[in-house]
Write a structure and sequence with these properties.
Length: 129
């Protein structure tokens, strides 16, 4: 059948990068706990759907969700949340690491999609228009 969704896009101001996939994993390192978080997002007609969440180990304010299972050092669970219209990736020059977007196992920093962008410029992940 015909696909209605054109997948995921990353926006910085008026600039848009097409990610070329309808599902991607976001990874970031918690600035205080230094533990890695991962979320798998999928573009749907309703918006962005959080498919899977994972957190490395556990610490203060990092409790895994209901039904989480431990796999390879990560607590993994399926959050039950409504679809979001977009996801604002708040960036800071202080955390020392940028958001990573992984598509089919290939990861790159979100900043690399917009060379020359400042490390504290927020980006938006959303279904492509």
């Amino acid at each position: 059948g015909r696909r209605l969704m054109s997948g995921l896009c990353l926006a910085l101001g008026a600039a848009i990068a097409v990610l070329g996939a309808d599902m991607a994993e976001l990874r970031w390192t918690h600035s205080v706990q230094k533990t890695e978080w991962r979320e798998t997002w999928r573009a749907t007609p309703a918006g962005l759907q959080l498919e899977l969440a994972a957190v490395q180990g556990s610490g203060a304010g990092m409790e895994p969700g209901d039904g989480a299972t431990l796999e390879n050092g990560f607590w993994i669970w399926r959050p039950q949340r409504p679809a979001q219209p977009e996801l604002i990736l708040t960036r800071s020059g202080y955390t020392g690491s940028d958001w990573q977007i992984c598509i089919k196992g290939n990861c790159r920093a979100v900043g690399s999609y917009f060379p020359g962008s400042a490390p504290d410029q927020n980006m938006i992940l959303k279904p492509c228009p």
